[in-house]
Amino acid sequence: MTANTTVRKATTVPGAGTAPVRAPGNRPGSSARRPGWTPWLYLLPALVLLGGLLVYPIYQLGLISFLEYTQAQVSGGEPTTFQGFGNYATLFRDSQFWQVLLATVLFAAACVLATLLAGCALAVLLTRVRALPRLALMLAALGAWATPAITGSTVWVFLFDPDFGPVNRVLGLGDFSWTYGRYSAFALVLLEVLWCSFPFVMVTVYAGIRAIPGEVLEAAALDGASQWRTWRSVTAPMLRPILLVVTIQSVIWDFKVFTQIYVMTNGGGIAGQNLVLNVYAYQKAFASSQYSLGSAIGVVMLVILLAVTLVHLRLVRRQGEEL
Hints:
The chain has 323 residues and is mainly alpha-helical. Helix content is 71%, strand content 2%.
């Protein structure tokens, strides 16, 4: 008996014929498990575009933050010198920087909280109203979302103008100036940010609610759960991945607010009382021609937002979401 006959007998299963002997490298599905470089070839154009639009500007931002780069260096009157972490040391010794950072964090947190509450409440409302009111609310919200920030900010300044605005007349506030006080100016900007930000949360959460099986909500209703209890114990846990996404997006958007603050408070308010980091960086870089300090502020903002994004990724991984 030859060796080939022995192999065929060993691989024969009763009623199944003879199973062919395959080489170890030719297992079924091995090519599917090892796709190789094919996916990266499809992603290459997008990666090149992102590299040009993101990586290079970030590199330049970081490079300038380590140099002495003022108007004298831009005009060629003085040579550019390497400062190391000198710009960061100057920035961190500035008490105004820490005040602006604290104001930015508190303002962004208030905007995110207000946006999430309004967006989620209106998303639930969309599931309770009929088709025509739902369509009207969706169109109004999308109109606010599509309005350019500078246009919306200008309109809001006019609405709350102490001389010509209709809001003071309706509320009987006389010539009260919303932009004079620090907290009233921040409140006014918060309302505008809320107005143009809640549609994203509303539409996203509404889509998530529609994706929840109706049987789950019906079971909660049959068990006697109130609407609040249904939202807290059933809807919100099932929407947790979506809520995480809209929260992180809102944090990123509200942390780097620029247009609303700059337009509505005329560059940061009286004596800089309404400055946030983005406006503060603009003033350092372009108003004071301290481009290196402005770049250092931009790097600090980038690090903070990267930390928030990493926290978001860890939370998503913990919940078993596929990245």
